[in-house]
Write a structure and sequence with these properties.
D-Maltodextrin-Binding Protein, domain 2, single chain, 12 helices
Length: about 325
Amino acid sequence: MNRMLTTFAACMLVAGIAPGFAQDYPTQTIKLISSFGAGGGSDIVGRIVAPRLQEKLGQAVVVENRPGAGGAIGAREVAKASPDGYTLLNASVQHVMLKPLLANLAFNPDADFVPVATISATELILIVPTASRFGSTPELVAAAKSKPGELNFATPGIGSPAHMAVQAFLSATGTAARHIPMKGSTESVTAVAGNQVDYTITAITNALPLIQSGKLKPLASTGPKRHELLPAIPTMIEAVPPGFVYETWQALFAPANVPRNVLELLNREVLRILGESDTRDFLARSGSGPRPRTLQESAEFVRGEARTAVKLVKATGASAQ
């Protein structure tokens, strides 16, 4: 009998179903680690998903903020957690930047995590001061090509999503400019509005109030189509063909080796949440859009984003060491 039980347990493990918790998951509180500070846009998205996930699973989903080191602090905690589905990570595109930027990580962002589901994506906008001589993206590109390295741009810092977006812009247009790192998104946008730098690329919601008040001039958005909040502004594809698409995104991750049926349950419920009108309305108000993907689609997407991150970081020579 003991040999039969041992064989049965081994078969379940081979099948990816750990005895004792996978079959009736969840039976206890789920901890959602947010790698952002409380109150930020990405953290708010996670806090919108958490109570809805709690309703659907019938167990408490508690958000805990672990910001710092570009997302590495929160990610490290989840990487070391038990692979039982009770500790999840709310992360952004910054997650795939960790490996190329930080050589001495105590975990592997690729091997130690599995994507549960992608949640949302936010496109960015190229902005210049209202008084800028540039009235369009082609004009800015022409000036940058005529005097390489003379223009400058601000971002929240080396390796930030905004920095990588500008690098994608430079690569797509064959231009060069000087990077002026700031302390955060607000500072970089304010620097542009104050005519202290020539341009930046930032989330539309970061710039929208100043655009609406006439203190910033938007030139092009980085999404696959024009943003509904700024329908008159062309995309990069339209402005400087063939252009490019660059979006920041948010996703849920779990430690590697979480049972497949737990991942499938979590993915299925997140997709249901993203299909609800109130969730879509909230994301639209925050300048984002839902990005529902299956487990396989989420994994493929994150792998592709990781490859892109490596290329962009190499192109900038960026390092956060």
